[in-house]
Amino acid sequence: MAEPGLTSRLHGPMEYSENPSIFSPSSAMTLWEQIKHLPQVPCARSSLLMGMATAASVGTIQVVFGRGLQRSMNWSVGSFLFISILGWETCRRSRAAEQARMRSIMEQFEKRREQSRRS
Question: Cys bridge to 33: 1, 15, 29, 118, which one at CB 3.0-4.6 A?
Answer without folding.
Answer: 29
